[in-house]
Amino acid sequence: MTATLDRRRHPVRADLAATRYRGEVEAARFVDPQPFRVTAATTPLRRDPRPDCGIDTEALAGEIVDVYETTMEGWAWGQLRTDGYVGWLSSDDIAPLDAAAPVATHLVRALRTFRYPGPDLKLPPLGLLSLGAQVAAGAITETRGLAYARLPDGSFVVARHLVPVGHVEPDWVAVAESLVGTPYLWGGRSSLGLDCSALVQLAAVFGGHALPRDSDMQEAEAGTSLGFREGDPLPQDLRRGDLLFWRGHVGVLSAPDLLTHANGFTMTVSQEPLAAALARIGAKEYGALTAIRRL
């Protein structure tokens, strides 16, 4: 290749690249994408098409993936439209998106919501959807005073668990706080398990902030920098919602002295006094604080 690109963000390989990179990179062939929709509740994206390969991130139900290659072994290589992440995922967890397919109208706002075969909570659920999953909500049916939205596959979810696409909450940090106790999962991006940057990304979208996926991307691009540099004293005007970065880690302030973050120390989303977190992380994990940004 004639350019060095981030494999997490650019669908470019030596043997195959997206057509839009023609003339910018060298590749054996150039391919136009085919759009697919994620049909599983979640599906992992991996660096390599192997089940024993670590998870880079996850795609959530309803998200669109632009697919550039599928293999006989059941893998698809593509790019998530949600945040531009590139990777391999299971072909079993996606379906072609045709022009007549309904577009997503709502996001799941509850931590998790069950899908039912009919508009009745007493029916055995078909599965669940995570916070942040995208759905095309159809007709509303009420059963015993509870409203259900019909999804295109014929299943139903509780309507009040959804918010319209584009919905903005005044306090997105409360979404992050609602995930306290969720297990830590490297590469996870759902309310069943997630990592530090996914916690920030998943919560911030409900504040109208479309953030990149990984902590290094967020440190470079999220919001605006407060001008903090490694070794500086903490600013006196820290406030709720500020993002704190270490090399390989990010957390969000619930208060000027309280950090909320998904972490490998507790193996959960947890809250801890900022001073204690700075001391512990500095001594045993990621070193000194490197940046502070404000959305």
UniProtKB/TrEMBL annotation:
PROSITE patterns with a match to the protein in the record: NLPC_P60
Residues making up the signal peptide according to the UniProt record: none
InterPro entries linked: NLP_P60_dom, Papain-like_cys_pep_sf, PG_Endopeptidase_C40, SH3_16
One Pfam entry name: SH3_16
PANTHER family: NLP_P60 DOMAIN-CONTAINING PROTEIN-RELATED, PEPTIDOGLYCAN DL-ENDOPEPTIDASE CWLO
Family in the record: Belongs to the peptidase C40 family.
Protein name per UniProt: Glycoside hydrolase
Alphabetical UniProt keywords: Hydrolase, Protease, Thiol protease
UniProt keyword Protease, yes or no: yes
Segments passing through the bilayer: none
